[in-house]
Amino acid sequence: MDFLNKPRYVPMNRRRRIYEGKAKILYEGPEPGTLIQHFKDDATAFNAKKHEVIDGKGVLNNRISEFVFTNLNAIGVPTHFIRRLNMREQLIREVEIIPLEIVVRNVAAGSLSKRLGLEEGMQLPRSIIEFYYKNDELDDPMVSEEHITAFGWATPQEIDDIMALAIRVNDFLSGLFLGAGIRLVDFKMECGRMWEGEMMRIVVADEISPDSCRLWDIKTNDKMDKDRFRRDMGGLVEAYQEVARRLGILIENERPHGSGPVLVK
Ligand code: AIR
Ligand code: ASP
């Protein structure tokens, strides 16, 4: 579809805001069925009980997520991603978000370690998929397939599709990061329903970045992800930059605000 390659640029203040989350904003896109996903510098944890603005985080997540989604599209894993527009924004297809956080774990850490008393860093006997209900007031409680189907958040067929996608994403990401000297401990993904006329398919949506993955240096076990913020370790931007560098992603410097007109390609 040709028109998708030439979205017209609408100045920020004239765009219709569809949704604002903790780390991203969704704006109306240039064509029907598209949206613009804007990455903010805000970092939150424990459902926004902890909040900070971390200069440069949005730019890094936009680039890293672009890289991951472009590669997923290329290996035939369907995603909402169309293309990156600028330092902080990407063009995506509008999907109906399924209200679940799908977590895939390869190594014990975080809430799994806490809940089951497992030492962080223990290799799991096999990859484990978990579902959490997306609801801030309830702190995203863990749910089972029973809850998901009983409350109609997804059908059994959709859960099958989601799990198949989760496994493919995990396999791809594990290999990608391993090649960069990074262990993929766990990650969170979100899925959406993409409508193509009467047909619907489940695609990977949202973002995949160091905000949504646990990434440990293969040699030192240094944390290269949002746990640096959750656990007050500092050095978050430096760690995300290192992830980008190892993936071979070049990050241009963002122009400072108020330095004159900026041409957005
Ligand atoms: N995650 C879960 N909710 C939001 C995010 N980003 C991600 C974490 C971690 C994985 O899901 O970043 O990679 C598991 O998190 P937890 O806290 O359940 O151990
Ligand atoms: N992003 C979620 C929050 O704002 C959860 C997390 O990443 O810890 O609390």
TrEMBL record:
It catalyses: 5-amino-1-(5-phospho-D-ribosyl)imidazole-4-carboxylate + L-aspartate + ATP = (2S)-2-[5-amino-1-(5-phospho-beta-D-ribosyl)imidazole-4-carboxamido]succinate + ADP + phosphate + 2 H(+). Keywords: ATP-binding, Ligase, Nucleotide-binding, Purine biosynthesis. GO terms for molecular function: ATP binding; phosphoribosylaminoimidazolesuccinocarboxamide synthase activity. Gene3D superfamilies: ATP-grasp fold, B domain, Phosphorylase Kinase, domain 1. It comes from the Bacteria. GO terms for cellular component: cytosol. One of its GO terms (biological process) is cobalamin biosynthetic process. Residues 18-246 form the SAICAR synthetase/ADE2 N-terminal domain. Pathway: Purine metabolism; IMP biosynthesis via de novo pathway; 5-amino-1-(5-phospho-D-ribosyl)imidazole-4-carboxamide from 5-amino-1-(5-phospho-D-ribosyl)imidazole-4-carboxylate: step 1/2. Pfam families: SAICAR_synt. The keyword Nucleotide-binding applies. Its EC number is 6.3.2.6. Belongs to the SAICAR synthetase family. This is Phosphoribosylaminoimidazole-succinocarboxamide synthase. It comes from Breoghania corrubedonensis. The gene is purC.
